[in-house]
Design goal:
123 residues, four-stranded antiparallel beta sheet, mainly beta, globular
């Protein structure tokens, strides 16, 4: 029910925008976020945005990435600027329907996950 898109190959210093749309049986969404997993590494938090509330970023992407949401469309975006080779990973979107718990950076706090979209940054 989460469909991510927008990945691709880009040169270092370039930009990409990822999109993730929720559909189907996901009715209440409070947090929508992005995680990534590089080859041989664990999945790591990138950014999250709570409905009508704050945004949170991993230190590694602060100032370069921007997360935004269209609540009417249940869609979250990740604008990635000044991309670096170390940003290469499969990017996953996730959503949480918990009204009382801020999902934050913990993957276990998210209910639904997208299939992932590959971002490759060449040097």
């Amino acid at each position: 029910q989460l469909q991510a898109s927008g990945g691709g190959l880009v040169q270092a210093g370039g930009s990409l925008t990822l999109s993730c749309a929720a559909s189907g049986r996901i009715f209440s969404i409070y947090d929508m976020g992005w995680f990534r997993q590089a080859p041989g590494k664990e999945r790591e938090f990138v950014a999250t945005r709570r409905k009508n509330s704050g945004t949170y970023y991993a230190d590694s992407v602060k100032g370069r990435f921007t997360i935004s949401r269209d609540n009417a469309k249940n869609t979250v975006y990740l604008r990635m600027n000044s991309l670096k080779p170390e940003d290469t990973a499969v990017y996953y979107c996730a959503s949480s329907g918990n009204a009382r718990l801020l999902a934050g950076s913990q993957p276990s706090n998210y209910d639904y996950w997208g299939q992932g979209t590959l971002v490759t940054v060449s040097s």
